[in-house]
Amino acid sequence: MAGDECFVLSPPGGLVYYEPKTISLLSLAYLVDIFEALNALNLKLQGKNINIIMHHDTIRTFMAKLDLWKCRIQQGNTASFSNLDSALIHSNLDSELKKQIITHLTD
Fold it and tell me: What is the pTM assigned to this prediction?
C-alpha cells in the first residue's frame, strides 16, 4: 500500500524499499511496559552514592520481578504491565503473545 511504504538510505546513498514488519498493538503495549521498567532500573543504577552491593541488590530485585512477572503472565494476569493491561480491557491475552512474553522474560 502506498501509505505503508518505507524507504531507508543505503550505502552509498541509494534508497532501498522494504516493508515494515507488523507489530500488534498488544505487543507494543508490552514493550512500552518493559522498557519503562528497564529505564527505571537504569536510573536506579545511576544514582548518587551507589556502591556495588547496592547495584547487586537492585539487579537481584529486578531479576526477581522478572520471575514474578513471568509467573503472572503464565496465569494470564497482566496487572504488572499497565499498558498491556489497559490494551486488553475488552479481550484476553492470546496464547501466542503469552508465549512470546514468557520467552522474552526468560531469555
Answer: 0.74
